[in-house]
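Today's session is about reading a structure prediction critically. Students often jump straight to the picture, but the first step is always the sequence itself: look for stretches that repeat, for charged clusters, for runs of hydrophobic residues. Only then move on to the predicted structure, which in these notes is written as discrete structure tokens rather than atom positions. Here is the chain we will use throughout the hour.
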Amino acid sequence: MSRNIRSERGRRLGNAPQLRLLAKRNIRFARSNWDISPEQVALLKRLTEELQLSVAAGDLRVLDGKWYVTHAGLLRIAQRNRCSGMRTAVDKGLSDPASSRWVFKATVYKSPRSRGFVGYGDADPSNVSSLVHGPEMRVAETRAINRALRKAYGIGLCSVEELGWSPRPAGANQSNQNAPSASGNNGYQNGQPRLRDRLCLLIRQHRLDASLVKAYAADYCGTGSLRDASREQVEAFINHLTERALNDREALLCHLNSYPKQEEAGK
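Below is the predicted structure for this chain, in token form.
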């Protein structure tokens, strides 16, 4: 492991001039297309050094003030690291073609001897953009591949394709943002379902106890109750809960049962 880290550091140092040039190009392109803050510029410099991706090529995007990697960027990282291959399969037990709900399992093999890094992805009309209603199966497969690639290569950035809503690009026209739909934890995002609705759907799909999920959410977000959490915290929790429900529902149920059930009012 330490040898690999030293090798990676050595490769980056050897490419330092190219990385500086790439960082300048990324920043120039980002500033010309988005209204980004100095903090976002500093983060872009670090991401350029770590991931060696091009903003102009569509490898990285900034949405709602946050940087995201794209499917193309993840594939570029896999190619650069000589990924041995990947495999995808439909999870027939969790998929429901009649309701356009698809769940995929993806396995990425970094080398011929790799045991594989697994990622799951789901998609249905409730968690994809209205622009891509219909090809939910392909969206689910892409999300699974992205998660597996991020695990395999230690990419902490969430990918654009994994988002269950349609965030606005940074610097977007603010004239149409006066509607209350974009504010609060339960606001709509470009016509997409509210976070509360997505959480309720997740609870129904996996037959979870709503009160225990709320307790888990508050614990995960570090707040007194779920309603005190920010939108970003709730979004992260929903993604986390989805992954746990797909990967090991039994372990999730055991974890949920460790929380005391909420007593009804008046008892």
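Discussion point for the tutorial: Residues 194-262 form one domain.
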